[in-house]
Design a protein that fits this description.
- There is one protein chain.
- This protein has a 7-stranded parallel β-barrel with strand order 1-2-3-4-5-6-9, surrounded by 4 helices.
- It has one domain: Alpha-Beta Barrel (TIM Barrel).
- It contains 8 helices and 10 strands.
- The protein has 255 residues and is an alpha/beta fold.
- The radius of gyration is 17 Å and the shape is globular.
- Helix 4 packs across helix 5, helix 5 crosses helix 6 and helix 7 packs across helix 8.
- Helix 1 links the parallel strand 1 and strand 2.
């Protein structure tokens, strides 16, 4: 039987008069969409439209909550007390759940965005706040968490179903965290390089750092960031390459 993998992308990141191109094309390629919930991007109309498009294309829907940082696209660090952070997450996930319900579909997973995700990957206290919020809202929600992260460990310990994610277009440090975007080697550029990066990880069951260090993981879901200029081409190359290699691509709930 072919090993199952999931291909996901962060979508629904238009806001008001500002449009992020490519969502419709991406939804024809990926299996799951992480939809912005209004704090770093997205707005109620975009959320409802994206949920409807995902349903039309048979794509499972995840909430993509963040710090309240529209100007910084959710990529700036904020120090938020745990009770407030939990409330922010419940608020955002609940808003997307309502939008999905209005379109006759539902939210099945949660993937924190940007700086919130990066901090929760390394800081166990923040990771615990994130998973508590998801668990309080619905313990059946799947946590999509970076492989080898504190967030993945915290999710499993609290009893959430956890899917481990690797990034097609981001480079890794020796500790398993992402190379900061401030560094020139943070990104993996181009469809060919991204596919090679992913194939190394799934075939070796390991994160491969910029220095060549292998960190054992179980890659289950592969993310292509939707805000990159070559995102659609990269996603298509990944889909084609993984299918050719014998992998079965499915939605997150099907993993």
């Amino acid at each position: 039987m072919a090993k199952k993998l999931n291909l996901n992308s962060d979508l629904g990141e238009s806001f008001g008069a500002w449009k992020m191109a490519g969502d419709d094309a991406m939804l024809r390629i990926v299996n799951s969409a992480n939809v912005a919930c209004g704090y770093h991007a997205g707005d109620p109309l975009v959320m409802i439209k994206t949920a409807g498009l995902a349903k039309d294309h048979g794509v499972s829907i995840g909430a993509h909550p963040s710090f309240p940082d529209l100007q910084g696209f959710g990529r700036r660090r904020m120090d938020v007390p745990a009770p407030e952070l939990e409330a922010m997450l419940i608020y955002q996930i609940g808003a997307l759940e309502a939008c999905a319900q209005a379109q006759g579909t539902k939210v099945t997973h949660v993937k924190p965005h940007g700086a919130l995700s990066n901090i929760a990957c390394a800081d166990r206290k923040v990771a615990d706040a994130v998973v508590r919020a998801v668990h309080r809202l619905d313990p059946a929600l799947i946590l999509l968490a970076p492989a080898a992260s504190q967030m993945a460990i915290a999710g499993k310990e609290i009893g959430l179903p956890v899917i481990e994610e690797v990034f097609a277009d981001r480079a890794y440090l020796d500790d398993g965290n992402l190379v900061p975007r401030s560094r020139p080697d943070a990104m993996v550029h181009g469809a060919e390089a991204s596919l090679a990066h992913v194939m190394r990880m799934v075939e070796e069951s390991a994160l491969v750092s910029v220095t060549g260090k292998r960190i054992p993981v179980n890659p289950q879901s592969i993310c292509v960031h939707g805000d990159n200029a070559d995102a659609v081409a990269t996603a298509q190359a990944l889909r084609d390459g993984l299918v050719k290699a014998g992998f079965s691509l499915v939605t997150i709930p099907e993993l």
